[in-house]
Amino acid sequence: MDPTSPPGRSVAPLISVQNLSKSFPGVKALDRVQFDLRPGEVHALMGENGAGKSTLMKILAGVYRKDSGEVLLDGQPVEIESPAHAQSLAIGIIHQELHLMGHLTAAQNIFLGREPRKLGGLLLDDEQLNRDAQVLFDRMNLALAPTTVVGQLTVARQQMVEIAKALSHKSRVLIMDEPTAALNNAEIEELFRIIRQLRSEGVGIVYISHKMDEIQRIADRITVMRDGTYVATVPATTPMAEVIAMMVGRTLDQADKHIPDTSASEVLLDVRGLNRGRAIRDVSFTVRRGEILGFAGLMGAGRTEVARAVFGADPIDSGEVRVRGEPIRLRSPQDAVRAGIGYLSEDRKHFGLATGMDVESNITLPSLRRWLRWGVFLNQPAIRAIGQQMVAKLRIKTPSLTQTARLLSGGNQQKVVIAKWLVQDCEVLIFDEPTRGIDVGAKSEIYKLLNELAAQGRAIVVISSELPEVLLLSHRIVVMCEGCITGEVPGDAATQESLMALATRRD
Ligand SMILES: Nc1ncnc2c1ncn2[C@@H]1O[C@H](COP(=O)(O)OP(=O)(O)OP(=O)(O)O)[C@@H](O)[C@H]1O
Ligand SMILES: [Mg+2]
């Protein structure tokens, strides 16, 4: 096969999947799915949370074994038995959650278990190791020292190391499962540059993402899945509204934005003169009952830092936080929760989700004291009912309430964390990137929910890096840049341009 020939009908697929099925206990994750990948194409895989995208790719990467169906590699049937086997077949994957060893260097991670040796195999040859890694980084046009300890790298850079690792196995197939979920715009551009480079070298790339704009920019073809089944494969020039309709099986109605007049409502959250090193500089704002306050800004502007400080997760140098006019002690998140402040972290893997516990416990445990009868006995039926109610309300895709959270798809894990905070009944709720990794249909459900929460009289803060999201949701928008608030705009007067101008203002 000539790897330089352009993608087209005549090109034989690198990988072709036919009638593939896979079940987990209680879940038919894949039901007679088909898929093919050509050399030198970026093939986007789209579908709602839990549609089966990651499962399909994990089968190709040897993480799971298929139940039935066929996988052809260069036209020949293969049984992919293990991740090592997939690598030897030149299939590389970058998982939804990164898998690197934080204490090892970039080069050590790339060649883990196959380090070059010297003196007849007695000693590791670190110089050769670093040289080999450098060759890969050069090929990717990446300025990164092979000796950097991975734990010190940004998520984006770690992702680049993962790509280098996949390339070190001479991958002809590279699978990327939501690679940009935690990247900023500049980092996404860097990733796209590398993807285009690999594509021109004839690598076939599978690209999983919920971000429509990215898919339109980078993909050549799109395959849509729904509920574990194959829907269609279409050119990436297909109008996105059509693709979305295929994904969700219905057309989505855009929620009309209505900004209530809350000018006379009680101030629930009042933050005054907050300071923390250079990260937070003299930040003050208020949120009233019934209001949704948006926080816009570039990644690193200090929005998460402010949220964490208000939540008592990080110490502050100076400043005051009042809830309903009362100054609160802010030594720990427990203090904040007691005062009625909830914080949905942007990092669900480290804060938020207990991956080893089941769905029900994740939703109800943090508010367990609410389910005590006479202050002692747990009211099990009430706990079960609230769990069921949340699963239905947020459409969490899970076979049961007792399913281990780790086994849910990425987007459904995020929904579980949201459910947990809804149950806690906090009057002030801070949502940090609430729709990261969440599919379009579920996104609009979460928007509806935030509006409902505000209408019930809570004060909502939404931090989001997606400007359209901030614009759609917020009644009022605060913009941050380098630790400072650089402006405040009414929700109905703001535009992407005006927010960007404030987000990049230097002082
Ligand atoms: N190891 C597992 N054990 C049990 N069920 C699983 C396992 N892995 C996946 N599932 C289930 O299989 C279905 C498909 O999950 P998958 O992770 O493939 O979805 P996805 O399309 O990648 O979703 P997302 O967009 O949220 O990442 C889901 O219902 C999920 O809960
Ligand atoms: Mg997934």
Secondary-structure map:
Layout: E1 15-24, E2 27-37, E3 42-46, H1 53-60, E4 68-73, E5 76-77, H2 83-88, E6 91-94, H3 106-110, E7 117-118, E8 123-124, H4 126-140, H5 155-168, E9 173-177, H6 185-200, E10 204-208, H7 212-218, E11 221-226, E12 229-235, H8 240-248, E13 267-276, E14 280-288, E15 292-296, H9 303-310, E16 318-323, E17 326-327, H10 333-338, E18 341-344, H11 359-364, E19 372-373, E20 377-378, H12 380-393, H13 410-424, E21 428-432, H14 440-455, E22 459-463, H15 467-473, E23 476-481, E24 484-490, H16 496-503
Parallel strand pairs: 3-10, 3-11, 6-9, 9-10, 15-22, 15-23, 18-21, 21-22
Antiparallel strand pairs: 1-2, 1-4, 4-5, 7-8, 11-12, 13-14, 13-16, 16-17, 19-20, 23-24
Magnesium ion is lined by residues 53-54, 96, 177, 409-410.
Question: How would you describe the overall organization of this protein?
Answer:
Helix content is 32%, strand content 25%. It has 507 residues and is α/β, with parallel strands linked by helices. It has helices at residues 53-60, 83-88, 106-110, 126-140, 155-168, 185-200, 212-218, 240-248, 303-310, 333-338, 359-364, 380-393, 410-424, 440-455, 467-473, 496-503; strands at 15-24, 27-37, 42-46, 68-73, 76-77, 91-94, 117-118, 123-124, 173-177, 204-208, 221-226, 229-235, 267-276, 280-288, 292-296, 318-323, 326-327, 341-344, 372-373, 377-378, 428-432, 459-463, 476-481, 484-490. The strands form six sheets. A six-stranded mixed beta sheet has the order 6-9-10-3-11-12, sandwiched between helices. A six-stranded mixed beta sheet has the order 18-21-22-15-23-24, sandwiched between helices. A four-stranded antiparallel beta sheet has the order 2-1-4-5, with helices on one face. The model is unreliable at 1-5 (pLDDT under 50). Strand 23 and strand 24 form a beta hairpin. The termini are far apart. The structure holds adenosine-5'-triphosphate (ATP) and magnesium ion (MG). Adenosine-5'-triphosphate binds at residues 24, 27, 29, 47, 49-55, 96, 397, 407-412, 439.
